[in-house]
Amino acid sequence: MNPYRAGVKDFYGPGKTVDTTKPLTVVTQFITTDGTDTGDLKEIRRIFVQDGKVIQHPKSNVPGISTQHDSITDDMCASFKGAMGDQNDFKNKGGLHQMG
């Protein structure tokens, strides 16, 4: 999930919470239903590390979505597709379970 595209315009960029003019580390976590490497994928979460601080991904700020999201889940995909009037092709292809 790109924070800027998810309606959060003050989080990622030059001089922002995650300042792209400085070195940073992006950590992507693939979380499964049972916490093992072989479990079904249920969530993709991203955190940032900069200047020795861990920075959590912000919740989205998308009009028309009742629950804002801070990670990629099947519910997040359904919410975004619904708010934008798009067909949920991701769900039709098996969602995170299939992707995992």
Notes on the structure:
The chain has 100 residues and is α+β, with helices and mostly antiparallel strands. The chain has one domain. Helices cover 20% and strands 26% of the residues. The chain has 3 helices and 5 strands. The strands form 2 sheets. The protein has a 3-stranded antiparallel beta sheet with strand order 3-4-5. Strands 1-2 form a two-stranded parallel ribbon. The mean pLDDT is 89.
Strand and helix layout:
Elements: E1 12-13, E2 18-19, E3 25-32, E4 41-50, E5 53-56, H1 74-84, H2 89-92, H3 95-99
Parallel strand pairs: 1-2
Antiparallel strand pairs: 3-4, 4-5
Oligomer: single chain
Spatial strand arrangement across the major sheet? 3-4-5
What number of structural domains do the residues give? 1
Kindly provide the radius of gyration, computed on alpha-carbon positions and rounded to a whole number of angstroms.
15 Å
Helix content class: 10-25%
Structural class: alpha+beta
The description of the largest β-sheet is: 3 strands, antiparallel
Distance between the termini: 17 Å
Structural shape: flat
SSE run = EEEEEHHH
Instruction: Quote the beta fraction.
Output: 25-35%
Count of distinct strands: 5
Q: Please, how many helices?
A: 3
Low-confidence stretches: none
What is the arithmetic mean of pLDDT?
89
Summary of the model, kept short:
It is built from three helices and five strands. The chain is an alpha+beta fold and 100 residues long.
Describe this protein with a few key phrases.
single chain, 100 residues, alpha+beta, 3-stranded antiparallel sheet, two-stranded parallel sheet, flat
